[in-house]
Amino acid sequence: MKKILLSYLLIILALSVTGCIRSDYNHLLIEPRYDEAQYRSEIGNLFYETDEKIGITTSFGFFIYNLDTDELITTFAIDEKKAFGEEFLVEARLSKDEKSIILSGYSSTEVIDDYHYRYYLKSNTLLRVDQKVDHDELYPLPDQDRKTFETSDWTAQDLAYYPSNSDTPYYPFKNKK
User: Fold this and answer.
1) Nearest residue to 76 via CA among 124, 118, 122, 38
2) CA-CA distances (angstroms) from residue 35 to 61, 155, 173?
3) Closest C-alpha to 58, from 85, 77, 30
4) Quick one: which H or E segment has residue 120?
5) DSSP bridge pairs for 138
6) Does pLDDT of 15 surpass 50?
7) Using CA atoms, how far apart are residues 30 and 77, in angstroms rounded to an integer?
8) Among 76, 45, 35, which Cα is nearest to 161's?
9) What is the pTM of this model?
10) Phi/psi of residue 117, each to 5°?
């Protein structure tokens, strides 16, 4: 019995060391590419909005900005090619419990719906989930028809966010180069 138990432990250890068992997918996370903002055609989109915080998805990363403290509290990007394949983009949505960001892959011709990734905000951990996204678990999207962002020179630092109840802009990336 001890030999069998020891054999199982050695197999698990060997698989863990070789990378066959992966508890997270943090190897897909990369630093946001703020300098690429000026080379893209879109400014950014909101995937989350309250009176205190906003969630921003851009071509150079994913962010949660605290309006009260005027700081980015979550910043990360994902290697789209490694996560979903060539020609795929990533859609971000916040979970209804506001504890994780769900990342799904799509292209102009296809949506990947058999798996997605979940980025946990508290632990900064990315996990792969091998099932469809449960849309009942998603935080509602903000009004997508309202103009929320403006920029004059297309750099990340110049990106201005306008809340629906104010004409005063916030600059989430003002200190990023």
Assistant:
1) 124
2) 11, 7, 11
3) 77
4) strand 116-120
5) 95
6) no
7) 5
8) 45
9) 0.82
10) -120, 150
- pLDDT at res. 6: 53
pLDDT value of position 16: 43
Residue 128 to residue 117: CA distance in whole angstroms? 4
For tokens 């769900």, name the residue. Answer: 102
Token pair recorded at residue 142:
């903000």
Amino acid at residue number 72: L
Indicate if the pLDDT at residue 18 is higher than 60.
no
pLDDT, tens digit (0-9, with 9 covering 90-100), for 118-162: 999 999 999 999 999 999 999 999 998 888 999 888 888 999 999
Q: How far is the C-alpha of 10 from the C-alpha of 1, rounded, in Å?
A: 14
Q: What is the 3-state secondary structure (H, E, C) of 139-153?
A: CCCCCCCCCCEECCC
- Measured CA distances, 1 to 5, 12, 13 (Å): 6, 17, 18
Other beta carbons less than 10 A from residue 159's beta carbon:
25
What is the layout of strands, in order, in the sheet containing 45-49?
Answer: 29-30, 71-78, 61-66, 53-58, 45-49
CA distance 103 to 30: 14
Q: Spell out the residues 6+ positions from residue 76 whose beta carbon is closer than 8 angstroms to its own.
A: 29, 30, 31, 32, 61, 62, 119, 124
Record the tokens describing residue 119, joined without a space.
Answer: 């980025």
Share of the chain above pLDDT 70, in %: 85
Determine the Cα–Cα distance for residues 21 and 35; give it in Å rounded to an integer.
35
